[in-house]
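Section 3.1 - Work completed
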Amino acid sequence: MQAVGMKLIVVGATGLVGSEVIRLALRNPSVVSVVAVARKPVPAPTNAGPESQTSKLQSVVLEDWTSPYPEDVIEHIKDADACIWALGVTPTQSKDMDFAAVTTICHDYTLNALTNMTAHARNPFRFVYTSGVAAERDQEKTPPFLADYLHMRGRTETAILDFATQHPDRGIEITVAKPGGIASPGREAIGPQFLALVETFGHTATVHVSELAAAMLDQCLHGVTKDPLWGEDLVEIGRRVLREGDYLR
């Protein structure tokens, strides 16, 4: 069922993926409100084009991401229909960070958000989580690199899916987007030294950021169709719903 007049929460709104989600959401007439939750104010994009309605964007600053959300934040996110979660620490970034801090951002922030959002959201509530092709849900398997990090990301995927199962009364629909490299104008999707490694996972290695964002928006608008969404799924959905003029250039 399509969400009519969808209110969408976007977390990680200042990053590559989150900013593209916002740009496309502001161009989509089916989305009537976009709530960008971040540590600092999120300005309206200047590249959304003449079809966009930047007045739909609300910027909400959240300072404490591991505690119950304050009332001013709840007031903005209540009655939301969906959330696209694009906040996280990349594998490269994780190498230079304390692993406990990485876990807090990737895992704890996400589960705390689900608890706070779903307590005040509409039913159904759709939650699309951005992960990666190498994140490993099976803790018995040994990832080919950064095992602790990839196991943690996999545990996070499992935890959010379990959350939906444990709260059947809230009508939570969840899927995880698992792209490989993400291409955008002026940015190489993935370095040649890592391309062969990503291809060993057996899924489409790269996806354009507009296709990724559009596919996640589509799942929020029309309902979750499968979990997870691998690179080939994201490319197929994104290309199907995007118009040529929608792509980030």
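Second construct:
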Amino acid sequence: MEGSKERQGDFVFTAKEQGEYRFCFDNEMSTFAEKMVDFEIAVENESRDAQLPSKQGTSPEQTSALEESILKVSRDLSTINRNQKYFRTRENRNMSTVKSTEGRIFNFSVAESALMVSMAGLQVFIVRFFFQGARKGYV
């Protein structure tokens, strides 16, 4: 799996063998800029080895209905958890954008203020130059 210059993406990896796998993220394109990496691993088609213990005196239909209900709650909780992670990641990314924009606005404001002060000083210098000694006749 390879991706280049991508802000976000979905990658699917199918494991051929059972065991441990490692992920490597590379930042050689831009080593100067700090990056934040957030990823989620979802396991699909996993076998369900755990079974609920059945009570004596309950029918298999009741136990299976309970299992279905528990699995539905589990899926819903997983969906909520994924959504929370997504929104947290999105908030972090947007906060980074806000901080960057805030810094640019501050720098622009400082430069604009310095330019206004220098223009005011230049105008004072020009007006004084016109009204100095021998130049009074020109005005």
